[in-house]
Predict the 3D structure of the following.
Amino acid sequence: MIDLRSDTGTKPTPAMREAMATAEVGDEQEREDPTVTKLERRTAELLGHEEAVYLPTATMGNQIALAILGERGAELIVEERAHIMVSELGGAAYHSGLQTRGVPGYRGRISAEQVRATFWNDGEFWTPRMSVLALENTHNTSGGTVWPLAELRETVAAARELGLRAHLDGARLMNAVVASGVSATEIASGFDTVTLCLSKGLGCPLGALIAGSRELMHQARVEKHRFGGAMRQAGIVAAAGLYALDHNVDRLADDHARARRLGEAWAEAGLPVDLELVQTNFVQIDVASIGLTEEEALARIREQGLLLSQTRPGVLRAVTSLEIDDDAVEQALTAIPRALEAVRV
Ligand SMILES: Cc1ncc(COP(=O)(O)O)c(C=O)c1O
């Protein structure tokens, strides 16, 4: 089976495992793990923030951000198909007492104008206040799309004018960096908090970080503990993170090139692929537009020896990662059109 479901399926390579096996470790909860500390410092610097906190998952990073930035009973503004909205089980309400306002995005982006338009202050004490804005870059369900830096800054500036705090779900931030050539600091430093995930295209078995000011990261450590996320000899996995930052960032360009090759071949074969959305390591196929349900399309694709996943109603996605080499791409080039009968091979 060629597994194109997600870059979360990446497994640690022998060299990454070697780095893990030889990692110096200590009690992370006591901040005595030198490898975790090194990864936190390195990530803070990468993202242009004072401090970073190592976490098991990016979901925990987003939820900690909402807990420390949000005001209970106030509103969270987020794109309506962002991970925080569709895949975190109402955590904003459940953990942090936030009322979420989902705004329809264009390729996952919310404009400054949309942020201003959501603002409503009639001076009455019963009208909910807006408290926090969360953006996502790259945007998963839109197809791994990248925010243009100027637009990102305008949207964050609009939020600031209205007194909101701002969080970036940068689970795949390094894909945005590699695709756009804009540094992680330029993208991330304007936010109060940023989540970075290590277990997607960067290839770690687990791990994520949240970054922000020293003061906010103190609060993040408190919430991390409250969520049950404080760990012990976590350096064994943090070593994978350091390895990934050294070896697996630039190579994301290969994943992007392979996704592009797949997208172009499938579009050429008549499949409904919007190439403008193929900006990083995802390719979306709008199977509803060729009269297939997601289940039918996935079953046909599986018969040809490939796995894709559902990303939003009517749309499947193929994701490239370090698990997908050129041979796999060559096979997928023809197998997917054959499965969906766009071409007869
Ligand atoms: C944009 C985005 N944010 C956050 C997450 C959550 O990551 P994790 O699985 O590490 O909790 C994901 C996972 O797919 C994601 O795509």
Remarks:
- Residues 8, 57-59, 62, 83, 136, 140, 169, 171, 197, 199, 208 surround pyridoxal-5'-phosphate (CB under 6 Å).
- DSSP finds 14 helices and twelve strands in the chain.
- The first strand starts at residue 2 and ends at 3.
